[in-house]
Write the structure tokens for this entry.
Amino acid sequence: MQLFPCPFCGPRDETEFHYGGDAGNARPDGVDVPIERWADYLYLRTNPKGTAREIWVHMNCGEFFVMERDTVTHKVLSSTALGGEHAA
Amino acid sequence: MRDLAEKWSVAPDWQSAVIAAPGLVVRAIAGLNQLLVSGDLDAWTRASGLDGNGVGAFGTAQGDRYAARLARDRLLVVSNGPLPVATGWHAEGFAVTAISAGLQVFEVEGSALDAFIARGTTLDPRQASASAALSFAGISAIVYRHQGRLRIHVDRGLAAYLWTWMETAASNITAGSGN
């Protein structure tokens, strides 16, 4: 069992959170988006070994945030609230 | 045709339902006025004169009119009687929704309260947390203290389940079981 830090609530049980995908994987916009870009957006993941930047949501308070964590050690490096903008 | 209602336990009569075990008493609380406030909570405070912060998880609420914080932009306002606040959107930047019929409230007290909490959540009840919304007994709940007792608000549709869970927890605490 891990504790994840919600930017608003503080440390909470990992079961209260839901994974939202890689940070920075913004949905392509416009009519001229090539299929390779769509494929990249939909199917290709960086899957880093080490530091990863991910979107998470705390289901109980509804807070969306970017969490940086190490996929090897499971250490959480940071969690930052999203203010409605796309995560870079 | 199969009667699937037989699969479910009958919901208790909340007016008289009580779980009594050594060091633990659980009751359903009826008649509380509950409002959800969403949006600009500073504007809510200015317009209503009521608390715009609210207690967090296991925080202590005082009096017969108080608020529990659910999210960065959401409060549950609880009072014994109706509040002079209209439901709906307010131009100041917040919305008020009546939720009295949607949430069932339980109150738990006794010397075994800590053991009861430990069975419901892995959260440390001594560590402050801004939001009173948390997972308790495997479901989303709003949990805080009020006048020395623990208050739990849950979706009314989950109240019968939580009651069954609390009966089992009280029984296991009495038996000294680790389950």
Notes: The mean pLDDT of chain B is 94. The two ends of chain B are 37 Å apart (CA to CA).
